Amino acid sequence: MRAKVLSPIRIVTSIFALAVFFTILPVGAAAQIGDNFVYVMTNKSPHNSIATFRRAGDGALTFSHETPTGGSGTGPNGADPLGSQDSLVLSGDGLVLLAVNAGSNEISVLARRGGALRLLSKAFSGGTFPNSITLSGDLVYVLNSTGDSPNVTGFRLDVNGRLHWIATVDLPSGSAGANDIRFAPDGSELLVTISATNQILVFRVANDGTAGNPVAQASAGNSPFGIRFGHNSDAIISEAAGSVSSYQLTGADMLSVISGGVSDTQNATCWISVPRDGKFALVSNTGSGTLSSYSIDANGSLALLNAVAANPGGAPIDSALSRDGKFLYVDESAQGKVLIFRLSDGSLTQLGSVSLREGIQGIAAQ
Questions:
Q1: Considering 61, 73, 121, 211, which has the largest number of Cβ atoms within 10 A of its Cβ?
Q2: Containing H/E element for 228?
Q3: Distance, CA of 166 to CA of 207 (rounded, Å)
Q4: Which residue(s) pair with 301 in the sheet?
Q5: Tens of pLDDT, residues 219-261
Q6: Bridging pattern class, strands 37-41 and 337-344
Q7: Whole-prediction pTM value?
Q8: What is the pLDDT of residues 322-336, one digit of tens each?
């Protein structure tokens, strides 16, 4: 789907969504939109929280404060406690954070007020073990990845930062352990990856925000995991088997393969970040302790740029790029660190790290 005309309802919804994110912050908060922050979810059990770091012009991080989510994480559980990407997401304007509480089956809404991050609300996720969440305008969907009926559940975010349930759609049989949920850039579809069944699910999203039944297709590479979008709304998906694939969304709610299973020769290629210009993809190879880089051309084709763009060791997982595309921040959950890299033309230079605690997962950056 290269271009799509928005319906009048969706245009109104988008305008309303902008009002939401500015209304839930007090007068004067707009002056903070230009601030640079990195947010890390501690995933603590029983008291999950968000650690806020101020980002300097050279990429360095300085701890600012820690804000409870009101729910429970899972605590330390190996290198990858949640088995997912996008457990913490930031709205496009940088004003609202959404976090999953996998240990208490809740999701939290936070926003910056009075110079600090503040919890606005929390809600039942609609299922068991929420591990990934996505946002488009005022529409929120969460992936509930385990239990008897793994599902995706949708909510509307109101002007007070509260979530209101609108839909729950069950995943196909055998989908336990799904890994990522992501809106297409225009909000008209949802994608979900399921590494255990080697499937990608595509959900059509109606104008009222409800998701239809998923259309499943086999992944081009083995064990699809993280989802990002590049040029022309092309989906770029990392694969735990050690590769990345790219796809074009079609009008039939399917994915047409552009580049299938492009290997990076590394192990456990699960997490992926793509800068706003869509020219590169950076992936974390948790099993190899490395990061790899890919180039993305204007047609969405992938080429391996550097199999070992950085070699920090350990088990790097979740990552986030600064909005200017100059810095990459990577969680290292097993050691409780956030790794800091400079990005230039697809090349990474490690600048240092900051320490938190074991079990962290979920990271977002401005």
A1: 73
A2: strand 224-229
A3: 12
A4: none
A5: 999 999 999 999 889 999 999 999 999 999 987 788 999 999 9
A6: unpaired
A7: 0.91
A8: 999 999 999 999 999
